[in-house]
Structure formats: C-alpha cells, structure tokens
Amino acid sequence: xxxxxxxxxxxxxxxxxxxxxxxxxxxxxxxxxxxxxxxxxxxxxxxxxxxxxxxxxxxxxxxxxxxxxxxxxxxxxx
Length: 78
What we know:
Layout: E1 2-7, E2 10-14, E3 24-29, E4 32-38, E5 41-45, H1 51-63, H2 65-76
Antiparallel strand pairs: 1-2, 2-3, 3-4, 4-5
C-alpha cells in the first residue's frame, strides 16, 4: 500500500492492486477506512466513519485533488 498524504489523523493511500479500478483513494483513521472515487469525488464505501468525518474526508480530498490524481497517475501509469 502506498501512502500518498497524511492530514492530521487521516492517512490517504491506495493499494498496488487498485490498478484495474477507476481512480480512487482510501482514507484511514485507526480502525476505520473509507474509499472515495476521485473523478468525480464521491464516497464509494464508508467503513465506519460517521457523517461528520466523511464530510471532513471529502473536503481533504477536494483540497488535495490534483495531488491525489497526480500520485495515482504516476504510480499506475508508469
């Protein structure tokens, strides 16, 4: 698994096996994990986060969208 970004308690990453799926990012905090599609940004799976944290995760992804897309493209298209 490749960590792309850490924001506070949240770690944003993708798995090497994610190559065959649309661009997305996993967000983890402690034992919770969510998956967001990147284009367009939308929740795919909530993994135990409450609504407020999911909103916070969405904002983090939106604020770092270009960085996340570039990291995906660099990792999977090379």
